[in-house]
Amino acid sequence: MTGDGTRAVRAGVPEGEPYAAPLPGPTFASHFHLPGDPAVATYAYGRQGNPSWTALEAGIAELEEAVGAVVFPSGMAATTAVLFGLLRPGDAAVLPSDGYQLLPRVRERLQGFGITVRTAPTGNDAQVAVIDDDTRVVWVETPSNPGLDVCDIRRLAEAAHAHGALLVVDNTLATPLGQRPLALGADLSIASGTKALNGHGDVLLGYVAARDPELLDAVRAWRTESGAILGPMEAWLAHRGIATLQLRVERQDANALAVARALRERPEVSGVRYPGLPDDPGHAVAARQMRHFGCVVSFTLPDREFADRFLGALRLVSDATSFGGVRSTAERRGRWGGDDVPEGFVRLSVGVEDAADLIADLNRALDVSSAGSRAT
Fold first, then answer.
1. What is the pLDDT of residues 21-38, one digit of tens each?
2. pLDDT at 39
3. EC number(s) on record (predicted)?
4. What are the residue ranges of CATH 3.90.1150.10 in the chain?
C-alpha cells in the first residue's frame, strides 16, 4: 500500500490522458443528454448525480477504506441523511450527550417522529450501557467536539453489533488520515468535510462512507429525495484540497502538541485537553486507534471576561468558529449556549503557521489578559 501522502495526492484522480487536466474541472449541468432507459444512465438529472461528485466520492472512499462514499452540502446534511434515512418510528438511537451542539436539536426532531433517543457521554462504559435490542443506530464522536474525549471504536462496534445495531462514527476531527473507523469495525464514517478535509475555510461539505453498499444506497436515496446536493464547484474545490491533506494533518498535529504543552505552562490556563498529550485522559485509547491526534486543543481560562480579552488580543489566531483550517482560529464556546462547558472554555484550532509564532502570540495574549485582570 502506498503512503498517506501519495494516497491523498492521488485520491479520486483519474488515470492521465493525453492533453487532459490532471483533475477534471467542475461539471456545471442541471441535466445530461439522456437517450433510452434512464435506469442504465450514468448521469441523467443534476439532483441524482454529477461527475464532480463522483470523483470526490471516489477519493473519500479511498481515504476512508470504504466501498464508497456519498457527499452532501454540509456536515449536518450528512448527519440528517444517516439518522432520518436509516431510522424508522419505533427504532431507538444512541447519541452522545457531549457531542456537536446541533445534535440536541436533531434529537428533538427524531423524537417527534416516534424514534426513541438515549444519550450518554463519550466514554465506553456509559455508551455501552444504553444499547439494547431496540437500538438501530449508535452514534459516536471520537474525539468529541468540543471536549476531546475519546472512545474505543472496536469495543463500541462489538457492543452495537451484538444488539443488531449499526455503529456510526463522526470522524470529522480525526480525518481519514488520522483514524479509519471502518477498519476498526464501524459501519458508517461521517464527517463535516468543511473542516480539515477541505482545510481552507472556503467550502461547506459533508460526507458518509460505508462498508456496506446497501447502506450507501439508502443514504444516497435520501440525498436524491431531499435534494440535499453539493454544488459541482464546491465538490471540485474540496477534491483539490484533499491533495494537501497529509501535509496539513502532519503539520497541524505537531503544532497542536507544541501549543498544548506551552499552554500547560501558563498559570492562567487550566484543563488543557489534547489526545496527543501522554497524560491526557483519552491518550491510551487514542494511541491505539489514531495515527494523528488532530488540530484541536481545548482549555479553560478564569472566566468569560478573561477569555474575551484573550481572544481579542490574539494577532495570528482569528476569533471564529469551525476548525481544521490552515489558519488558526479560536473561540469561547460558551457564547453559543449549546455546549456544557465553563464560560472561559476555549476551543483552539491550530493551523499550519510556525509553532513558535503561534506560541508567542498565545503567550502575549495571555499576558495582556492577565494585566487586564489586575487592572480591574
1. 999 999 999 999 999 898
2. 87
3. 4.4.1.2
4. 245-375
The domain 4-242 is classified under which CATH number: 3.40.50.720, 3.90.180.10, 3.40.640.10, 3.40.50.300? 3.40.640.10
Please confirm whether the linkage preceding 146 is cis (ω < 30° from 0).
yes
d(CA 47, CA 43): 10
One-character DSSP codes across 178-234: T--GGGGT-SEEEEETTTTTT-SS----EEEEES-HHHHHHHHHHHHHHT----HHH
Greatest CA separation found in the chain? 78
CATH topology of domain 245-375: Aspartate Aminotransferase, domain 1 (3.90.1150)
CATH 3.40.640.10 spans which residues of the chain? 4-242
pLDDT of residue 33: 94
E strands of 224-290, at which residues?
Answer: 270-273
Which residues, in sequence order, are CB contacts of 171 under 8 Å at separation 6+? Answer: 64, 179, 181, 189, 190, 191
Catalytic residues: 47, 100, 170, 195
Using the predicted structure, report yes or no on whether residue 17 has a pLDDT greater than 80. yes
Q: Tens digit of pLDDT for each residue in 229-262? A: 999 999 999 999 999 999 999 999 999 999 999 9
